[in-house]
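Quick board copy: two proteins, each given as sequence then tokens.
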Amino acid sequence: MQVSARHVRIVGKVQGVFYRGWTVQTARALGLAGWVRNRLDGDVEAIVQGKEADIARFLELAWTGPPAARVDDVSDKVIEVSDLRGFEQRPTL
């Protein structure tokens, strides 16, 4: 299995609306590894790692997120694959 990894940044009304919790649930359902956290600038960032098709589906879903979110932008860049297991929510940075 070819594994890929992305650094993802989500911009909009994405804090205080369960976006991180939604991300954990969605990533786990897709079989992705990584983490998600709020940023002090109001954005949400995540590292997602797994099969390319599953990452593509995650990125597609990230444009909607949970019902209370308003997503203005989702950007991603390819990063080096690392030894990630599971998907977790991390503290704000």
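And the next:
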Amino acid sequence: MNEADVFTMLRDTILAVLIASGPVLALALIVGLVIAFFQALTQIQEMTLTFVPKIVAIFLGIVASLPFIYATLTGLSDRVFDLIGRGGP
């Protein structure tokens, strides 16, 4: 295994993590923006108003996207274990 193979596996790993975490992060961003607009319109500056809905949305987003996350990480681990089993690319 040479440096190019290591960089390829690192790139695939980083890409898999970004793809797996993307839906939950996008959901947290959308919920945060909606709450920020609501706070700006009503001038309510309660700290728990920002955290509690985001935590609930993130939890529900993780539960909803768990099959997608599992499939992404399973595909990555299959490629890595095949690479280990073959002794290189």
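Board note added afterward: The mean pLDDT is 89.
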